[in-house]
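Lecture notes, continued. The same structure-token format from the folding unit now serves as the input rather than the output. Read the line below as a description of shape only.
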């Protein structure tokens, strides 16, 4: 037999470890479209707080100090993140599902939520959240808009402080 043997297979390449090309059998899978923008940092922190709480309750981690050591952050920072769990469940859900940021900075930051999380009464929290600048909750684009939102929130915080006195 002098004739060669021909095998036909459909293959594609994908990225492996260290960005090496790896050959795979079959057709090229369709690439899923990833949404534009980034998930707001406060949404990621809220998810992290929920995960930390699960780790502590399940006994995998002993306490917040242990979390701080493992995460190489201060205990105070872990406490700030965990304080997001003091928010009413519906506010937590809204934070988790904030729209992606397409331009500029995230208009809602964890620091802005601290005064709301410090109040333990969920009804009061909901009222504070309702007065929270609507533009910051709904629109996530434009650095100039973010600056305007910060100015609005600053005036909101000053009004709240004066009412408390």
């Amino acid at each position: 037999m002098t004739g060669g043997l021909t095998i036909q297979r459909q293959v594609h390449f994908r990225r492996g470890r260290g960005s090496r090309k790896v050959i795979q059998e079959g057709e090229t899978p369709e690439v899923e479209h990833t949404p534009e923008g980034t998930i707001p940092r406060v949404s990621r922190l809220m998810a992290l707080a929920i995960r930390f709480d699960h780790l502590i309750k399940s006994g995998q981690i002993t306490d917040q100090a242990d979390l701080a050591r493992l995460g190489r952050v201060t205990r105070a920072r872990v406490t700030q993140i965990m304080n997001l769990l003091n928010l009413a469940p519906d506010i937590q859900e809204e934070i988790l599902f904030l729209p992606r940021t397409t331009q500029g900075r995230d208009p809602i930051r964890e620091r802005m939520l601290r005064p709301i999380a410090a109040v333990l009464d969920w009804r009061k929290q909901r009222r504070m959240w309702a007065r929270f600048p609507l533009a910051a909750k709904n629109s996530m684009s434009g650095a100039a808009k973010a600056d305007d939102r910060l100015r609005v929130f600053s005036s909101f915080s000053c009004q709240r402080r004066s009412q408390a006195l």
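Point for the exam: Residues 140-165 have pLDDT under 50 and may be disordered.
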